[in-house]
Amino acid sequence: MFSRILIANRGEIALRIIRACHELDIEAVVVYSEADKDAPYLQLADEAVCIGPAESAKSYLNIPRIISAAEITDVEAIHPGYGFLAENINFAQICRECGITFIGPPVEAMQLLGDKIQARKLAVKAGVPAVPGSDGALEKDSDALELANEMGYPVIIKAASGGGGRGMRAVHNDMNLRSAFSSAQAEAKAAFGDGRVYLEKLIVEPRHVEVQIMADQEGNAVHFYERDCSTQRRHQKMIEESPCPILDKRTREELAQSALKIIKKANYVNAGTVEFLLDKDKKFYFIEVNTRIQVEHPVSEMVTGHDLIKWQLKVAAGMPMKLSQRSIKHSGVAIECRINAEDPEKGFTPSPGRITRYIPPGGPGVRIDTHVHQGWMVSSSYDSMIAKVIVHKPTRAEAIATMKRALREFVIEPIKTTIPACLDILSHNLFVKNKIDTGFVERNF
Ligand code: MV4
Predict the structure, then answer these.
(1) Helix (H), strand (E) at residue 243
(2) Mean pLDDT of the chain
(3) What are phi and psi of 114, to 5 degrees?
(4) DSSP states of 346-401 as a string?
(5) What is the band of 164 on the pLDDT scale with cuts at 50, 70, 90?
(6) What ligand 1 atom has the least distance to the C-alpha of 204?
(7) In terms of CB atoms within 10 Å, which of 24, 145, 191, 229 comes out highest?
(8) Per-residue pLDDT, 162
(9) Which percentage of the chain shows pLDDT scores above 90?
């Protein structure tokens, strides 16, 4: 096992990783920007190194500075958390060349799965249902037009390197196809330096369901069941839960096994998420793989009792998982609400500023993952997520009731947060009755 690692991230996930390290007797070195110099988790870390100003490009995304910090603190490995450098192939490659273990997948698996066209092909080869679509990248808009007519509208154009909905266009007829094709291409080129696009049949009003997996260096792979992440707004998830409340036992098992087939075919190592869309008939289709630990991992931790960050550390250190799928049980229902410093009444615009009153909820079945506290200055330089409330209860109804109770207890003043928006969703008839899809929030709020 490692004796000392560096955490190349900030906020709640940096603190979450420090905690996992200390439970495994690993020393945790954390890097920080000037904006984070007063963060209390820096005191919990075994060492803290300032790597630059608030601006991410000059600190948390600054590869030479992070590698320098790793060298001078003599760490064996780097945990990238999520966001920032977590899916940066170049960074993983540089870590390898410097003899530092990247706590993530092998570079080859990142390359393969980071390319959604290749990932699609891999899924098909593994015998997993993917959304019907193009065999590879589409060179010309005329190719897209031809395929769209063959498959029938509506279709969706996607960027091979896409993420967060960028370079993605739904198209409903021939008339709009050419312009959608070229704008998707241009957006992809600008955002990812890769203008390759492909085409799929559009799944109308799908649910978003993802399978949490973990794979070790010896080829063992297990799943930690699925999360339903349909409650999202503009590709930002708001509420996640496990299990997916509308899946029957058989489909659930098929979904999990499909995820594992893809992971094994990719020679994957690390925590990962295999994403699927669920259509109206509850048929599932593979869409992509996220090669990182995700924000919503605590949901899967609560329902299985496993610490996914600890598993990441063990697997990266080369330990075999020695974990049978049979031993991983799913119990009860977990729900997570993301608390963002945003004003729901002003179109979810960022609401940075100093927190002068902070009273977190507690009680049975409530977990809070956060780095904030009374007096903390929420910076406008970073993502607006400041806390996650996770509840775990025997049933969905109880989990919803506990979450509402916890959110009503939660005091964060004077900045605006997404707490009222989450409460509105949790009380909505369609959410309670499981009659939602990925468009639910945007249609109803
Ligand atoms: C789709 C889709 C419908 N049909 N693909 C959005 C981001 C990327 N992860 C994939 N996305 C979608 N792909 C087909 N063929 C609808 C979405 C989508 C979506 C997916 C998951 C969660 C939220 C979403 C919101 C809008 C669109």
Answers:
(1) none
(2) 98
(3) -70, -20
(4) GTTEE--EE--EEE---STTEEEEE---TT-EE-TTS-SEEEEEEEEESSHHHHHH
(5) confident
(6) 3
(7) 229
(8) 81
(9) 99
277 CB burial (10 A radius; 0-12, 13-18, 19+): buried
The residue from 120, 169, 292, 338 that is catalytic is 292
* Interval 184-239: pLDDT, tens: 999 999 999 999 999 999 999 999 999 999 999 999 999 999 999 999 999 999 99
Q: How far is the CA of 442 from the centre of ligand 1 (A)?
A: 14
* pLDDT score of 388: 99
> Could you tell me the distance, in angstroms and rounded to a whole number, from the CA of residue 259 to the centre of ligand 1?
18
> How many other CB atoms are found less than 10 A from the CB of residue 255?
24
- Residue 273 is classified by DSSP as E
DSSP, res 211: E
Helix (H, G, I), strand (E, B) or coil at 60: coil
Task: Determine whether 10 is an active site residue.
Answer: no
Dihedral of CA 215/245/258/324: which sign?
A: positive
Alpha carbon of residue 345 to chain centroid: 26
Residue whose entry in the numeric block shows the structure tokens 């399978």: 211
Report d(CA 321, CA 421) in Å as an integer: 40
For residue 139, give both structure tokens: 């060179």
Indicate which residue's Cα is closest to atom 18 of ligand 1: 438
Q: Which amino acid is at 167?
A: G
Ligand 1 atom 20, closest CA: 208
C-alpha span between 262 and 368 (Å, rounded): 33
From the CA of 40, how far away is ligand 1's center (Å)?
A: 38
Pocket of ligand 1 (CB under 6 A): 131, 156, 165, 200-203, 206, 208, 232, 235, 277, 287-288, 438
What lies within 8 Å, CB to CB, of 326 at 6+ separation is none
Q: What is the mean pLDDT of residues 298-319?
A: 98
Residue type, 82: Y
pLDDT digits (tens, 9 = 90+) for 114-125: 999 999 999 999
Q: Ligand 1: which residue has its CA nearest to atom 6? A: 165
